[in-house]
Amino acid sequence: MKLIVVNLFFLPALFISIISFAQVPADSTSTDSVLLKQVEQQMQASATEQPAPTQTRSSLTFNPDIGVIGDFQSSYVSRAKKNFDMYLNETEVSLQAVVDPYIRADFFLTFGRDPLTGKYGAAVEEGYLTTLSLPAKLQLKVGKFREAVGRINPTHPHALPFIDLPNAYVNLFGEEGLNDEGASLSWLMPTKAFYQELIFQTTSGFSESPAFTRSEGNHLVYLAHLKNFFTLSDNATLELGLTGISGPNDSSRTTNIAAGDLTYKWKPVQLNTYHSVTWQSEFYYSNNHNAPGNTINSFGLYSFFQYQLAQRWFLTARYDYAQKPYNKSIREQAYSLTAGWYATEFSKIELEAKTTDDNIQARFYQAWLRWIFVIGAHGAHQY
Prior knowledge:
Elements: H1 11-23, H2 29-48, E1 65-77, E2 84-98, E3 103-113, E4 120-131, E5 138-146, H3 167-173, E6 179-188, E7 195-203, E8 221-231, E9 236-248, E10 254-266, E11 277-291, E12 294-308, E13 313-324, E14 327-344, E15 347-358, E16 364-376
Antiparallel strand pairs: 1-2, 1-16, 2-3, 3-4, 4-5, 5-6, 6-7, 7-8, 8-9, 9-10, 10-11, 11-12, 12-13, 13-14, 14-15, 15-16
Helix pairs in contact: 1-2
């Protein structure tokens, strides 16, 4: 049996045709054929008729990209009274969107844990506007942002290949890094042989940084950074950066810091999913004026070598050397090794062991286990 489906739209026409057909004499075969042909044409037209196109939503949305990053850690310290601990170290919420064709907005809110009290507090880690269409390859950024000091400071800690921060970096900029409120102007220089960028930044002065503080007067923090990026081959790149910083310290005088960074990356085109090498180093020289006629010069550095063992496994070895900026006779040396399993771009697990020795206290040992997980949208960090 053959089933015929008739469009409801054509039922009235079909009904009228049937009535007309019934009223025609039985011997009018020619009229019957005409009516049947009309009905068949109407049914075929209804079967082949295309549905009316539905209206789709525009891709433009007024909602920002929202992402949440969790940082869960457990730690061991050999010389602490409480050797073992477990905690949610930090939760970061990112809100990022293009405001209009001229600027974009990026906000990063953190809910961090105080290591002394164990209590959590909310803060704005970064919140800034960035221009998108300035002439002459210029870009302006205003708000609160991580300053352009070397390679570590502009990067959020969860994106680093190790859990703790280098000793020399912490001695000068603290655990939170150099993160301040102000303005930043960058210029992509018109060089053809290699990538070159010049950055000038002026900020109010971060009160939690050991090297700088917020002045009660008009003494601001000034920074200049020159980035040089070279493509050595299809598989290798080299980056060289130079930074100069000057600003007020807690003695109501001036601290000057000169820094340099060097980064070599090897990532073969054919095996880039399974093998890569990164060698990165930073050097810091501090000139601290803390009293009339008294200046303390100190030096520090870190250097790490990261090797990708397999598609998801990374091994990072790091060496730290640091003099205390308030007493250069105190010298620290540290060695650390970090194994990282990068499950996907949304989660990773890292285990780090570190030993530190100085000329004041006995050697001690530390270890951390970190699990980073991401939900929602989160933009890529700098290369």
